Structure formats: C-alpha cells, structure tokens
Amino acid sequence: MPSVGLDAGLGSVPAMPTQPAEVDDVDRAIVAALVADGRTSYTDLGKQVGLPTSTVHQRVRRLEQRGVVTGYTAVVDPEALGLPLSAIVSVTPFDPAAPDDVPERLATVAEVESCWSVAGEESYVLLVRTETPGRLEEVLAEIRTAGSVATRTTVILSTPFEGRRRTS
Predict the structure, then answer these.
(1) Residue 90 CA to chain centroid, in angstroms?
(2) Residue 8 has what pLDDT?
(3) Is 104 buried (19+), middle (13-18) or exposed (0-12) by CB count in 10 A?
C-alpha cells in the first residue's frame, strides 16, 4: 500500500524521469484513484480499474519510477494545527545580479510551506502559514533578512478550494 506522510518530504518517491512518461488510460485511472485516496490498497485499486492486485502494484511502482507519482501525503487543516493565518508573499531580490539562491536561503524558514519560481515582477511567490499577525510580521522580517529580498504580502481571508489535482 502507498505510504502517507505529513508533508511533501515524507513518503516521497525518488523520480528520475529521462523523458516525458507515456501514460495510458489505465495509468490515468490508477493516478486518479491515488489522487482521490493515496491510502487505497492495491486490492481496492485493482477493483477500481479492473486489474489483478499484482498488476496494479507493478503499474504503481512503474509510475513512481518514471516520476509520474512523486509521493504521497496527508492533507491537513492548518487551522487544526494552530496555523489559522495564511499569506501569499511575493519576493523580489534586492540585487538582480546576485546569485539566484533565494529558495536555498529561505528553506529553513519553517513557516514557508511552498515556494514557486514565477515570471513577472517578482522572482518567487511563497505560501506562508502562521499562528498570529504578529508572528507573520516576524516571519516577513526573517524572509527579508535571510533572502535579501523585498516582499509584498497578501493575507488570505478564506480558501474556497485548494489543491485540486488534474489527472488527465
């Protein structure tokens, strides 16, 4: 059965794709089932896609090896973990000629949940989750200092949906 971790780092599957993976309709059905429930047993996956358990197990292993399935994770409610305040933080390096190592410099800031490289005025966009507005202010100061960046912050008021996954 696929394992479940509490964040993207746990339960990760090493991926070393050398070329775009060929994914057939059965693989897409398996991926869709795993996206819906990453804890589904191989037996239940087989029933859903109409294949024997051993065949499904082999296909999932190949999907992992080819980098189609890159890991398994638990989806948690940040508020239940005491992190009710979420913000999108756009960062722009002070010196565009400096080495582009902002993600490495911000990797130790625990409140930064995600970091995306983007095109546009900013270089990176971060998802930050904190306990309080005061803590957000401290984290922003830490980001500016550690990353040697300017920030622009948008506080998230509500999340109608998040993490939708396409399987085709």
Answers:
(1) 17
(2) 37
(3) exposed
> Can you list the domains of the chain with their CATH numbers?
1-75 (1.10.10.10), 78-156 (3.30.70.920)
pTM for the structure as a whole: 0.74
* 117: phi then psi, degrees, rounded to nearest 5: -80, 130
Which pLDDT score, from 0 to 100, does residue 5 have? 33
Q: Which of 131, 116, 125, 113 lies closest to 149 in space, CA to CA?
A: 125
Do 73 and 8 meet the contact criterion of CB atoms below 8 Å apart? yes
Q: What value does the mean pLDDT take over residues 11-28?
A: 67
Question: C-alpha angle with apex 26: 25 to 31, nearest 5 degrees?
Answer: 95
Span 62-112, pLDDT tens digits: 999 999 999 998 888 999 999 999 999 999 999 988 889 999 999 999 999
Q: Which residues contact 139 (CB under 8 A, 6 or more apart)?
A: 109, 111, 112, 128, 130
Would you say how long the chain is, in residues? 168
